[in-house]
């Protein structure tokens, strides 16, 4: 839905920024402004200001700046349209009427929400009480899930019958076409009767940013099932690359400055939740997308992505680096944590405990560190040409960063790293070739060479002197 500038101006004029922000931040009046602790970054001294006269907030610690609409988008993870809808209700304004096409599309979406909600409730009821779900309940117990976690995540069970869900939902009054459109039922092209997409699987409901059920993931209980995990297809409600499993709960945890952790699977998220890491999310089996990174950056400056410590995990991490580099912004990046080989987060928590996992997170690597290691390990750097090739490789990567400020800082950071690395490499070669005469004067020589390196960088980048 499109909103005219006049509608948006009227909406913002009816709402005081301090009223909206004050529900999340304890504000104190200071002159013509309000101040409080940043909702975007942990701090002890207030650096967050709100100005009702000018209609904006500004956070000096994180650089976040905006109005009532952007505040709801940032702290609650709402889309632009969702934020407008919520604020219009508070301001007592009616939303502009959509055109016929938009209205029909919205009515269809609303009916699909209803059918997916009904399916989620039916799956959950099967897991609770159906005799056919005994194996599913046993599996969850073996994996260490308690009743509270099963209830919190609204886990369910899909029976093995060909059309059990379809029959149940049609009895509730839903049309078969709606079940197909919601991705719950598959209709064969050859005219045979439609059938349930999920059969004999543990069901993990997937929600949007507002907590509404929009899709499902299913874990097979049959050892010979073609796919161990199966997700809903793309639907009018569900676009896999724009959703994170457990995002609403993680967003709420991030408001209390809990770490936001990206893991691979549903069970990993739930295991971390039970261990006290309520900021865990999963990317639904896809490589991290720009849209998912955007969701993460709405709620935290530096989410931590946890990967297996094997070669496949390293490749997956570098794919995230390639995806994130172009869209880095001041204060927004990602960190990486690598688990020991053969352990996923669920296994790690059960074997080593929550304290060990927290220590692993505390030792996570920044994006720049990971990029440096990727390019430096295993390279031969004995000739000027080899060194030039390494410098060019970094320059090619850095050139992808669209934000000029971030790009310049990356360029400077890697110039320093390269200069120091080449200098230390040369020193090691000198020390290996010459006998050690005396330790005296070594520190002074190190300081002198380091000063020369810094001066050289200042000659190349004179603005850094400011």
Sum this structure up briefly.
The chain has 466 residues and is of the alpha+beta class. It has helices spanning 5-14, 17-21, 68-76, 80-91, 100-129, 134-142, 147-152, 164-171, 176-181, 247-255, 266-274, 290-299, 311-324, 345-352, 354-362, 367-376, 384-398, 404-433, 442-460, and strands at residues 28-30, 33-36, 48-51, 56-59, 65-66, 156-158, 185-186, 195-196, 201-207, 213-220, 229-231, 261-263, 280-282, 304-308, 335-339, 365-366.
Number of strand segments: 16
The low-confidence parts are 435-445
Tell me the structural class. alpha+beta
CATH homologous superfamily of the largest domain, by name?
Answer: DNA primase, catalytic core, N-terminal domain
Give the C-level CATH assignment of the largest domain.
Answer: Alpha Beta
Give the end-to-end Cα distance, rounded to a whole number of Å: 47 Å
Radius of gyration: 27 Å
How many structural domains are formed by the residues? 4
- Name of the CATH architecture of the largest domain: Alpha-Beta Complex
Spatial order of strands in the largest sheet: 1-2-3-4-5
Number of helices: 19
The whole-number mean of residue pLDDT values reads: 88
Shape: globular
Helix content: 40-55%
* Biggest β-sheet description: 5 strands, antiparallel
CATH topology of the largest domain, anyone?
DNA primase DNAg catalytic core, N-terminal domain
The percentage of residues in β strands lies in 5-15%
């Amino acid at each position: 839905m499109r909103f005219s500038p006049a509608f948006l101006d009227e909406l913002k004029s009816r709402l005081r920024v301090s009223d909206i922000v004050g529900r999340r931040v304890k504000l104190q009046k200071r002159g013509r402004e309000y101040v409080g602790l940043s909702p975007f970054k942990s701090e002890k001294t207030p650096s967050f200001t709100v100005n009702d006269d000018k209609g904006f907030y500004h956070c000096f610690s994180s650089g976040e700046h905006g109005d009532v609409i952007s505040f709801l988008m940032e702290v609650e993870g709402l889309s632009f349209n969702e934020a407008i809808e919520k604020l219009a209700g508070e301001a007592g304004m009616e939303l502009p009427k959509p055109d016929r096409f938009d209205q029909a599309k919205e009515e269809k979406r609303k009916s699909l929400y209803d059918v997916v909600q009904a399916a989620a409730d039916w799956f959950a009821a099967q897991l609770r009480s159906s005799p056919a779900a005994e194996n599913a309940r046993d599996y969850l117990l073996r994996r260490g899930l308690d009743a509270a976690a099963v209830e919190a995540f609204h886990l369910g069970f899909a029976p093995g019958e060909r059309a059990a869900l379809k029959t149940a939902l049609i009895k509730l009054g839903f049309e078969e076409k709606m079940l197909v459109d919601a991705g719950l039922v598959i209709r064969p092209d050859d005219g045979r009767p439609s059938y349930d997409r999920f059969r004999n699987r543990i069901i993990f409901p997937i929600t949007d940013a507002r907590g509404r059920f929009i899709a499902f993931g299913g874990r097979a209980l049959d050892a010979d099932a073609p796919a161990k995990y199966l997700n809903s297809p793309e639907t009018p409600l569900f676009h896999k690359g724009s959703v994170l499993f457990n995002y609403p709960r993680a967003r709420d945890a991030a408001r209390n400055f809990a770490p936001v952790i990206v893991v691979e699977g549903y069970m990993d998220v739930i295991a971390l939740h039970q261990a006290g890491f309520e900021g865990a999310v999963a990317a639904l089996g896809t490589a991290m997308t720009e849209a998912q990174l955007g969701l993460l950056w709405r709620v935290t400056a530096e989410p931590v992505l946890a990967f297996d410590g094997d070669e496949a995990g390293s490749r997956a991490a570098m794919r995230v680096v390639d995806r994130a580099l172009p869209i880095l912004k001041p204060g927004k990046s990602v960190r990486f944590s690598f688990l020991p080989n053969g352990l996923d987060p669920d296994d790690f928590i059960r074997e080593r405990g929550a304290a060990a996992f927290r220590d692993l997170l505390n030792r996570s690597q920044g994006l720049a560190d990971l990029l440096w290691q990727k390019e430096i390990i295993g390279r031969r750097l004995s000739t000027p040409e080899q060194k030039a090739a390494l410098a060019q490789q970094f320059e090619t990567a850095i050139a992808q960063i669209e934000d000029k400020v971030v790009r310049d800082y990356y360029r400077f950071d890697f110039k320093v790293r390269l200069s120091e690395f080449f200098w230390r490499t040369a020193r090691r070669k000198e020390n290996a070739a010459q006998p050690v005469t005396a330790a005296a004067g070594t520190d002074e020589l190190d300081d002198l060479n380091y000063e020369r390196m810094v001066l050289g960088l200042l000659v190349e980048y004179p603005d850094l002197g400011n």
